[in-house]
Write a structure and sequence with these properties.
CATH topology of the largest domain: Transferase(Phosphotransferase), domain 1
Number of helices: 9
Structural class: alpha+beta
Largest sheet: 6 strands, antiparallel
CATH superfamily of the largest domain: Transferase(Phosphotransferase) domain 1
Strand content: 15-25%
CATH architecture of the largest domain: Orthogonal Bundle
CATH class of the largest domain: Mainly Alpha
Number of domains: 2
Oligomer: single chain
Order of helices and strands: EEEEEHEEEEHEEEEHHHHHHH
Distance between the termini: 45 Å
Radius of gyration: 19 Å
Shape: globular
Helix content: 25-40%
Mean pLDDT: 86
Strand order of the largest sheet: 2-3-4-5-7-6
Length: about 300
Amino acid sequence: MRGQKTSKKSDPQAMAQVTSILTRIQPAEQKDRFPPLRQVRIQGVNYQFGHQIAFGSSSTIYQAEDEWGNQLALKQYATTVPDELWRNEVRAMLRYRSSEIVTLHAAFQNEGVGYLIMERFGYGLGRLRNIQINHRPRLVQAVLRTVLAVLHQIHRDGWICGDINPGNVLIDLSKDKKLRGVKLCDLALARPAGEGASVPSVALWCPAPEQLVDVAAGGRQPQVDIYHAAALALQILQGEPLSLSVKDVLAGEVAKSAAAIHPNLGPCLASALSVDPNKRPSAIEFWRSLLAANPNT
């Protein structure tokens, strides 16, 4: 794939104009400071790799730059991760290209390890700390606008994302902490609805009721993505990671908590957090309900 100039322009309707949205960004967890590869040439374009910038359960992210000057990110899959996962993400990233998903620049393997070179964009939502309470509804709307737009595209195609979680949603902030953009960065578990995954979903950070009833089959339908999108919004509004028991999830207590957390947003989230998957809205219905709730007032 050819090097591309990274664009940071965003749809003005997608962005809430927020000043000083937070006071701290959590430092990234450190594992390997540099990747085994420091440079590579792909289809005639040279790429240089630098410091680690993020670390997850299945991959490590490093700084990268091509000779055009594009600021990129290198995703190195862990050696314990099945090769199928790397291939699946390449397939999904090529299938779903949009302004709401980071751009894939190149993909390659070296000594049995899978790598992706992608657009570098902001910070993982899970690293944001001390979000000012009066700005949380605006952040929810900006995050869900991106997440639900991607889910609408994927679900309409008969696929699921399978891994909506705080680490896979990127937030771009200006130096004075104004929100500039939101993008999704990981499609490794995206697949046709009904198809199983080679590894358990990281979205088990907040399992949907159907996943607790049947871990293997419960995460194979689009409704599970809607549940996780709403759980993501609930976590932003709470200002801290969700702490839920299996009993609470199965009894519908998550939806009840969401309904009470915000007068306008609460009912929208509660509907998407329904214990019954068939009662949850589609991605576009969820978004329309958020617009009707008008949380910015």
